[in-house]
Write a structure and sequence with these properties.
It contains four helices and 13 strands. The chain is α+β, with helices and mostly antiparallel strands. It has a five-stranded mixed sheet with strand order 10-9-8-11-12, covered by helices on one side. The chain has a four-stranded antiparallel sheet with strand order 2-1-3-4. The protein starts with a strand and ends with a strand.
């Protein structure tokens, strides 16, 4: 069983390392019973020191870490922003992705059901969770809300909660019409990037 951690690398700095470290520690302890925590800062420093690549300061890179009981691979990949304008609601009451597994087979199967939409919005047990790779936020004209029970508690989502920028709530597909817009966030896509989607572009299954 392998896990992934994706970290934003920009202008020579890794974003939200403490939150990433905490999630890795928690995942290792719960899945593998590990008590010896990975020192993420040291591992990344050693990786950069050994790397022969030149990282351009004004560009954004995706740091992709594969690990289980120990880190198995680290790589830095150039990152390109995505354009997502529409979502297709898909239902799956049995999906489980509470850890960031490398195996995304079930999510990929659901993504294949998007039809003419750019991305999917997964509903589990009647409640909205996540898209295939992002947490979702909804704006009601006064505040931003995010699902109380996402498939995966993302790093950017946690950062926004910690800083009281968003709040959590149970949100069903029937609630969507109460919002003015939706916004996608993940470790690579910040709140300030404003990856917004019109409510009219969220289609039922």
């Amino acid at each position: 069983m392998k896990l992934l951690e994706t970290i934003k690398f920009e202008d020579g700095k890794f974003a939200n390392l403490e939150l990433h470290q905490n999630r890795m520690n928690k995942s290792q302890k719960e899945l593998f019973g590990c008590e010896n925590k990975i020192d993420l800062v040291s591992e990344l420093d050693m990786f950069l020191a050994k790397s022969q690549a030149t990282y351009i300061n004004h560009k954004i890179y995706k740091c992709r870490i594969v690990y289980s009981k120990t880190i198995q691979n680290i790589e830095l990949l150039p990152y390109s922003s995505l354009s997502i304008k529409s979502l297709k609601i898909v239902n799956d009451d049995s999906i489980n992705y509470n850890f960031k597994f490398e195996n995304r087979e079930r999510i990929n199967q659901l993504f294949a059901k998007r039809k003419n939409s750019d991305e999917i919005l997964i509903v589990k047990n009647g409640l909205i969770t996540d898209t295939s790779f992002c947490n979702i936020l909804f704006f009601n004209g006064k505040k931003w809300l995010t699902p109380e029970k996402p498939l995966l508690k993302g790093i950017q989502r946690q950062f926004l909660i910690n800083n009281e920028i968003i709040e959590t709530a149970n949100i069903s597909p029937y609630d969507i019409h109460n919002f003015t817009k939706a916004r996608l966030v993940n470790a690579m896509i910040g709140f300030e990037d404003m990856l917004d989607i019109s409510i009219a572009e969220i289609q039922n299954e």
